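Dear support,

I submitted the protein below through the web form. The confirmation email said the job was done, but the results page showed an empty box. After a refresh the structure appeared. I'm attaching both so you can tell me whether what I see now is the final result or a partial one.
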Amino acid sequence: MSTTRLLLLGVVRIFQPAYGYQLRRELMTWQVEHWANINPGSIYTGLRTLAKHGYLLELEEGAGRKPGRTSYKLTSDGESEYFSLLRSALWTVNGFQPGQMQAALSFVWSLRRDEVLAALESRIVQLEQLEKAEPFAERQIVEDPGTPNHVVEMFRISSARDRGELEWTRGFRQRVADGEYSFAGEPPSWEPPPGLATHWGTIPDPPG
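What the results page shows now:
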């Protein structure tokens, strides 16, 4: 649920105020239904739920509650929740929920470069610790008489993902340190082609 909430708050933050159908269309171009397990039909429900909890402001146009006639903006609570979820996803390694880091990458530009570097260095340490503990955890599974033999392969595929992420994180951290991409408080490193939303040309500063 936190990944879904981050994605919805983040995409509203980019395009606000925006209609539900616009936000749904944008998220579908990110293929979130594949890596975040978001049902396209549930996006409208998610937006209304966030509004109910005070994270989004609904701007109604006329009578009725047709999704295409309601636009959304972040409230101050929604802005705070967005950054809380983003930082949690970026700073915390969760190999069983890879969609969390995918979502964080979608919005990592809204943080400052020094924080992104610190978070990636923290992730590297966490992943190195998992790699160090890996042989002992595998031995425990293999030597447990109550565990079927094939279960160790479930552990091994998870460990392989962690090792792959460690290699990628080291490379990404170096690219960020070398000045690639742009982050909050910096000139944008990418401009949208003519005809696309101009919101992508401005990177809002984080609060504080």
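Response: this is the final, complete result; the empty box was a page-load delay. The longest strand covers residues 56-60.
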